[in-house]
């Protein structure tokens, strides 16, 4: 049996690891992971890559080496389509940085296919976003943001050193969800560390961060109390929070609302919504929802093709109804992780010719970290199985434990322990911020 997994993200890499260990190593199935990148970095850390708190070069996992260690094969491949009749996935030509074709367009055959290609930022068709805003969908974009940030810090520091105290860097972030809130706090920390590491003219007055949200409050997925507390905390850090402010257009000079409000910015980040990649809507015979997600059965097989599974941000599964509207499994790392576990069990059951099991979603809560200043969130299933609001140190520890859980899923407990130890040592051995 040949199992092909497309996408080695929060869900796909854990799945490939489990199947590689349980089926690949024992010769019960061939497991092939395809990803358009050579390395994996956990997506919820991308805002830290953008600010420089995390160095993607140091913290990423090489798919090829990880596959070698865990019994699956890996190919770098940008998948562009599926031929369901012939049971193949179509792969775009692979080109080098100069655009020179190194590998031609090709196909890979599957007996079972798992689509785990995640989501991408939704610009909702707002004019100018694609041209002028930076998105945080992949490590390359986060690294591009970081390089830009360093250049802008250098520009302002030099100008102020030469007496032009009016110069400042204005970064606007559109979207008051977890990504926008976390990134804005990270930028304040980045300025502090750059000032410590030699850009001494960069004072708090020289960095302006605006967080712009169309809805009435930040963090709509969390309670009103947490949302108010997070806003107060961000404002204490000097961040200008604009709620009820819908951006109608992005230009080279900044952002504009339909009412004519202008934000003159040097850098703009769009973090205002998620959808699955567009090509999923063009797959004949497979249905998608408004967010382009492939509709799946409770077993996580896509509706209309029992040989294809989907998980994570690209899978649409209705949990129930709220106010007459469908409630979908939320596009979160914990959903991708839980779905990957169900798909792993179901594929193993396929090999063993046992009936498949349905996916059961368990909400463990949500956490938001304002860099190392503070954190907020709610944890589910606490005392009396209700939800427990957490804040400060406990919330921060729970937030860090989410990444450790992901590391345990892919590296196992011992290796994760060693990684945690090396992270601790790196705090002493390496600069606290990526400075280039
Ligand atoms: C900045 C940021 C912060 C976030 N913070 C949190 C958080 O705190 N908590 C939380 O629960 N969630 C958070 N999320 C959401 C979370 O990251 C996603 O829900 C989760 O990563 C989804 O996992 P996935 O496996 O479905 O897809 P992903 O993790 O997105 O992985 C998809 C993989 O597919 C690959 N791929 C995509 N298209 C193709 C293709 N055509 N061919 C081949 N490979 C392809 C990609 O390279 C990637 O490796 C955050 C997201 C972002 C962007």
UniProtKB/TrEMBL annotation:
Please list the cofactors this protein needs. Answer: FAD
Please give the Pfam families that the UniProt record associates with this protein.
Pyr_redox_2
Q: Where is the FAD/NAD(P)-binding domain?
A: 1-339
Keyword annotations of the record: FAD, Flavoprotein, Oxidoreductase
**Top-level division of the source organism's lineage:** Bacteria
Single GO term (MF): NAD(P)H dehydrogenase (quinone) activity
GO BP, one annotated term: aerobic electron transport chain
The record's annotation in InterPro entries points to: FAD/NAD-bd_sf, FAD/NAD-binding_dom, NADH-Q_oxidoreductase
Similarity field: Belongs to the NADH dehydrogenase family.
* Record-given protein name: NADH dehydrogenase
Q: Which organism is it from?
A: Ferrimonas marina
């Amino acid at each position: 049996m040949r199992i092909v997994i497309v996408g080695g993200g929060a869900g796909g890499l854990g799945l490939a690891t489990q199947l590689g260990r349980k089926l690949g190593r024992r010769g019960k199935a061939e497991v092939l992971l395809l990803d358009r990148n050579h390395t994996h970095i956990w997506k919820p850390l991308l805002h830290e890559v953008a600010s420089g708190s995390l160095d993607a070069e140091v913290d990423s996992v090489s798919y090829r080496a990880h596959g070698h260690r865990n019994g699956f094969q890996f190919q770098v491949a940008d998948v562009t389509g599926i031929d369901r009749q012939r049971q193949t996935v179509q792969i775009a030509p692979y080109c080098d940085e100069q655009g020179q074709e190194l590998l031609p367009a090709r196909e890979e055959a599957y007996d079972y296919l798992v689509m785990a290609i995640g989501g991408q930022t939704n610009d909702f068709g707002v004019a100018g976003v694609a041209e002028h805003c930076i998105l945080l969908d992949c490590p390359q974009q986060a690294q591009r943001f970081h390089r830009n940030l360093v250049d802008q810090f250098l520009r302002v520091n030099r100008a102020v050193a030469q007496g032009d105290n009016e110069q400042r860097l204005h970064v606007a972030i559109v979207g008051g969800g977890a990504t926008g809130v976390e990134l804005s706090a990270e930028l304040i920390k980045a300025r502090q560390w750059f000032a410590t590491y030699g850009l001494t003219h960069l004072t708090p007055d020289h960095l302006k961060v605006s967080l712009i949200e169309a809805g009435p409050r930040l963090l709509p997925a969390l309670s009103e109390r947490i949302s108010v507390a997070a806003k107060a905390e961000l404002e204490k850090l000097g961040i200008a929070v604009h709620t009820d402010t819908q951006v109608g257009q992005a230009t080279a000079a900044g952002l504009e609302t339909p009412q004519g409000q202008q934000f003159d910015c040097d850098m703009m980040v769009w973090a205002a919504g998620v959808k699955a990649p567009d090509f999923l809507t063009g797959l004949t015979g497979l249905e998608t929802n408004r967010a382009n997600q492939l509709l799946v059965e409770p077993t996580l097989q896509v509706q209309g093709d029992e040989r294809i599974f989907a998980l994570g941000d690209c899978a649409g599964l209705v949990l129930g109804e709220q106010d007459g509207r469908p409630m979908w499994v939320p596009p979160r790392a914990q959903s991708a992780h839980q779905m990957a576990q169900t798909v792993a069990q179901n594929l193993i059951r396929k090999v063993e010719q046992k009936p498949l099991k349905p996916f059961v979603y368990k909400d463990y809560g949500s956490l938001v970290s304002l860099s190392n200043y503070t954190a907020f969130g709610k944890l589910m299933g606490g005392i009396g199985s209700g939800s427990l609001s957490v804040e400060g140190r406990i919330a921060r520890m729970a937030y860090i434990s989410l990444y450790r859980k992901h590391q345990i899923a892919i590296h196992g407990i011992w290796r994760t322990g060693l990684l945690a130890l090396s992270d601790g040592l790196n705090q002493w051995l390496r600069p606290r911020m990526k400075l280039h």
